[in-house]
């Protein structure tokens, strides 16, 4: 199984920014753990602070990957374009969030991308990504 993990804006600063919300581990460190946990999967990782680059990556991977685990970060709440990109592809996308967005500011309670994703996982720290991979694994088995 080939899975692409996409992280949106500011997630390149995990382990540095707002540690009380996002923890002290960098995503690169966590990604290495995921690769060890899933040695039979092809896990790829992409991060961008730029909306258009995220959209381009979603378009590209429709031909090369079985699914996407997407943390669109702040674009979750603002990007119709990312929602449309998800809707335009035929592979499943799992929306993930490190924090429980529903316990945070009101503007974070609305996701523009959720309706285009097959599911949403939030509030389990970096483990939200592992849970997203597990969800894609189950979807792939149910095909």
Explain what the structure shows.
Keywords: Amino-acid biosynthesis, Aromatic amino acid biosynthesis, Lyase. InterPro entries: DHquinase_II, DHquinase_II_CS, DHquinase_II_sf. The record marks 17 as: Transition state stabilizer. Pathway: Metabolic intermediate biosynthesis; chorismate biosynthesis; chorismate from D-erythrose 4-phosphate and phosphoenolpyruvate: step 3/7. Its EC number is 4.2.1.10. The protein has a five-stranded parallel beta sheet with strand order 2-1-3-4-5, with helices on both faces. It contains five helices and five strands, in the order βααβαβαββα. It starts with a strand and ends with a helix. 34% of the residues lie in helices and 18% in strands. α3 (51-61) runs parallel beside α4 (80-87). It has a single domain (2-141), classed as Rossmann fold (3-Layer(aba) Sandwich), CATH 3.40.50. The protein has 143 residues and is of the alpha/beta class. The chain is globular. The model has no long low-confidence stretch (mean pLDDT 92). It has helices at residues 19-22, 27-37, 51-61, 80-87, 127-141, and strands spanning 2-7, 42-47, 67-71, 93-97, 119-122.
